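Reviewers of the previous submission asked for a worked example of the structure-prediction workflow described in the proposal, so we include one complete record here. The input consisted solely of the amino acid sequence. No template or homolog information was supplied to the procedure at any stage.
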Amino acid sequence: MAKIKITQVKSGIDRPERQKLTLKALGLKKMHATVEVEATPQINGMVRKVHHLVTVEEVKG
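From that input alone, the workflow returned the following structure tokens.
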């Protein structure tokens, strides 16, 4: 399974509660925090919901 690197680039402050909970579920707690996760359909759906707050890179190898 492919891995992706998700980095939070915008704040969750003043965002709907649902988006804040999605960031938390992805494991992002602070600005510029980065997590590396498997690219499952569930994770991809969560990333789509907060795409304006994060950047996504595919991890090689």
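The mean pLDDT is 97. We consider this example representative of the routine output the project will generate in years two and three.
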